[in-house]
Structures
1.
Amino acid sequence: MRSKSFPLLLAISLLILLLDKKNLITVIKAPFEQIVVPFKKNVYQSIYHLRFFPTVFMSYGQLLQEKNNLADLKRQKDELNLKLQLQAAENEDLRRQLGSSLPTSYRYIPAPVIGLSRFLEIAAGSQEGVGDGMPVVVGDVFIGNIINVSKNRSLVRLITDKDMKVTAKTNRGTFGEVIGRVGQSILFDKVLQKDPLFLDDLVVTRGTDGLPPNLLIGKISHIKSDDAAVYKEAVIEALVDITQKQNILIISAL
Amino acid sequence: MTWIIMAIILASLLESVAYLYPFTLMVIVVLALTVDQKVYRWAFLGGLFLDLIAFRPLGSDSIFFLVTCFFLSRYKMKIYFGNILYVFIFLLVIISVYDYFFNRILFSAGHFVLTLVLGAFLLSIVPRIFPEKIGSKQKLII
């Protein structure tokens, strides 16, 4: 191998890295994102559906039967939607009459998933209002927070990431710290020996480190207790399988 | 050249969309072992492409790939003429280092097995595509 090109290419790489860290080449990267994001979205969707192919193949008969029941369910859903709209309007009217402020509900930004490796990649960026540190949820379940934002996409550090640390508590009021472990597991650490901890306890965010309080994280599946240690710890089972999700929500305002 | 470009694109896509494994690094290392010329350019371009696709700091993968190819060029004679075991040991070490730096994975049995299987597959396929590039002294035999 000719080694003359190595120092030059290494120097160029270092320069590019330095410029990128200082956000000086965002203008050059932006046009590539216009192409990359839709392309990755299509690829991810295809791979996502492929994962279900063996299951679909094995349960074809059952699926056919369920398809026939869908029409009834759709009709019921439409009726419920109408009732919901009527009740929401009634609530709004009552609030106005009582002089209260607007409903205190979180504001969400929906985003499709376009990639999953160490981080979750989503097709929503600064132009949709996404910012660093915003929590990401699936329903009421906290799955991570935004760590890197560009114009069209963002990266989410998952709750299972090794660098993720979140202050949390159980439904019994036991405080601790949730630490991610590579793979699908999460650790509930720094729990005082005297505090109660039981299997199937729900773990939620505490709300002291910039995250909203009472977002579900998981439930206790295994407790490790060593009487000689200062703290005890437990393994948390995640409530959401992120590989099964195509869309997530970002909490943009509380 | 088309094969190399397609391999890098496919590996980068797989790595950033589907499965957390350094496929692109594997492709670059196999290229460095079997195809002698221009491997530094492929490492540089492949790294930049992966950074763009995977939304990583631009240049970070290029640096890693270039340094890997540099070390390979230094120790290629020992790896090339030695037992295939040396090749696999090198692959396992470099994949583990990359996994730790970029993915914070210290050891993964799945990655261990995938490295051996994928390494054997690529090292048996690539010399058939680029037979004229193999050095005249000894072919790499699986």
2.
Amino acid sequence: MRFVDEYRSGDLAQKLAHELSALVEPGREVKIMEVCGGHTHAIYKHGLEDLVPPEVDFVHGPGCPVCVIPMGRVDDAIALAERPEVIFTTFGDMMRVPGGRGSLLEAKARGADVRMVYSPLDALEVARKNPDREVICCAIGFETTAPATALTLLRAREQRVANFSAFCNHVTIGPPLRAILDSPGLRIEAFIAPGHVSTIIGTRPYEFIVREYGKPVVVTAFEPIDILQATVMLVGQLREGRCEVENQYTRVVRRNGNPRALAALEETMELRDTFEWRGLGWIEQSALKLRPEFAQWDAEARFELPGDRVEDPKACQCGEVLIGAIKPWECKVFGTACTPERPIGTCMVSSEGACAAYYNYGRLARRREPAPA
Amino acid sequence: MTAEPERCLTCGDVAVEARVVEVAGSTAVVVAEGKRERVGIELVEPVAAGELLLCHAGIAIEKLA
């Protein structure tokens, strides 16, 4: 199956939905967590919640690497951007994240030279074209994106570009999954793992979920049919008492991932001892920083940062939404004080966040509940 | 219902399938959704014109089977 139309086929979707109805135990809810904005987006855009039996409940985990950047770190980015010699480059969604002192977009409106890019390689190009300025690349994303930063750093070194540096905020998928699994009262039974992160890291990093927590995982592509297929695979595992990491995205994901990408990451970056995740708190070994050999291209080594910690607003219940303890509409400020235009917390900040997806696709109230057994 | 919000490529873990048109050193010119762009190919080379690559944030992260 190579064509998008086949993946979006209504008939196949209905067939998979019927298969699911036959697999679920009537009245017994099954909570399945996905941790990727792309999956959240596909579920809401294509109405998959209404297609699956009411027993299947999709829960949205912390899949947005922009949204989990704490407010104080956004303030650090703004401090860098406001330096007169700096051109600060960033991906689009990062521009709207509110820190304690507003957003990068607001800083841009006040005169900071903030430019949107689609790749850290673009930022390196900006540095080459502007030798009299300091170009800083805001390096954000999970393991899917970190290799692009790694390759950019290697090219910067090879080409001796002296006026380029990266402000590294890359995060890794394993530790927040473990933090969620360790949450008391967690009712998630299975996981849909992010397909493109897995292209880089492979399927092996999820094996701890099976081994230590006894919960099945399916690495999944991003079309609605893929998500439905993964759901059938997961519910099938639960029904049969199996517990494995399965790969639904065999077109591009291999067990060992992309060795060259992993080597580039290993050469340029290392794990931070700990990193603060907005809504989840401090998580050990969950984020990357540049190796000392790359200090010349490390914005944290080259520039002073305020480094202040900013508390999330008291009304924010993102932490509970992120582990699936509450649904977006159960948050007291959802849709009222917290909207996509004026987000309070991480889940609403990015268009891929759970709350933003719910809000933008009109899901403002509770969905149907399974009938009691 | 509001209009579909703009996708963020990092948050959505978005990667795009693109066909190679031309290779020049560690960079390939690819076409995806009618648009041409340059991507770094260090992670997947060697590549040839006509091959399909999975691209994210300006680099190819895998070749498509």
